[in-house]
Amino acid sequence: MTMKFATRLNSFGTRPELHWKDLVGKPSVAQLLDRASKVRGLTHVDLNFPNHMRDATPRERVAQLADCELKLNGFALRYYSEPQFKAGSFTHPDPAIRQQAIDTAKRGVDALKECGGSIMTFWPGQDGFEYPFQSDYKRLWDLQLDGIRQLAEHDATVTVSLEYKPDEPRAFSLLNNAGTTLLAIQQLGLPNLGMTLDYGHVLYAGEQPGCTVALVNKMSRLVGLHLNDAYGHRDDGMMVGSVHTLQTIELLLQMELDGYDGVYYFDTFPDLTALDPVAETEANIATVTAMMSVVRQLMAHPELQAAQAAQDAIKTQRIVQRALFGTHYPA
């Protein structure tokens, strides 16, 4: 099966001199799409709503995607550029501002459908708290779930995928790990809810990525994956496999075992260190492609499952290292 790759569109404003000779100001969304289309192997993009839909209608944006020979993976709700939502989106204490956030999300679903998409990713980054005694935690939970319910029920043909993160921009995020997010999905009980995992967020939450994928698919369904890497202390947005190589391979193996057929999205930050975004994305694609060759070896290995069943760490490590290093690893 041919893999589908998407990436963070805003990254392509980095190092503009490498692509545009006479650019004045920031590149438009159409220009970012054009630059992204230069990445060998890239098939899809995600668009942030409302940010990436301010200067074009859904029909115009679809035409631009077609011109660039790219497909739409989905929309991601983003409230970070709206100052009124700093104190919360779905959990804002002012009912009018909270309703504004929900209405914005519903408009995003409508625009997504017009663009031919069906996945709306919601990262509730503004929904949380900072101080002891600041909030009524049960009320925050009820507000969060009520907002998600309204969004999911707005159009049952659109999948709403929840993306958690331990903190940032809030000191404590309400949906801060896999377990809490799965609890919310279970409580809501809506068929068009799922989860998007961001690799860096999973590490940041102190979780083992492969284990988290398995539990998400057991209790709900994995709708999207944001690949990157990090040291686990913050959202570093580093290139795939640059720090946690074995854990990334294990995650990819688990996704294959669970039958994931979605897009592999690179949520990396070449802009933080002024890397060439085209070359950086191509490096990510090459890394995942190479890792998948190791995954296929491991899936076909007759002894790996038996070693895992026995919880034999020495044997499983020998099998994995042999798949990685071939004859360089002693038998």
Verbal overview:
The structure is a single chain. This protein is α/β, with parallel strands linked by helices and 331 residues long. It has one domain: Divalent-metal-dependent TIM barrel enzymes (TIM Barrel), CATH 3.20.20. 42% of the residues lie in helices and 13% in strands. It is built from 11 helices and 10 strands. The strands form 2 sheets. Strands 1-10-9-8-6-4-3-2 form an 8-stranded parallel beta sheet. It has a two-stranded antiparallel ribbon with strand order 5-7. Helix 8 (245-257) packs across helix 9 (277-299). It is globular. The two termini are 31 Å apart. The mean pLDDT is 97.
Descriptive key words:
single chain; 331 residues; alpha/beta; TIM Barrel; 8-stranded parallel β-sheet; two-stranded antiparallel ribbon; 10 strands; globular
How would you write the strand order of the largest sheet?
1-10-9-8-6-4-3-2
Major sheet attributes: 8 strands, parallel
- CATH class reads Alpha Beta
N-end to C-end Cα span: 31 Å
CATH third-level topology? TIM Barrel
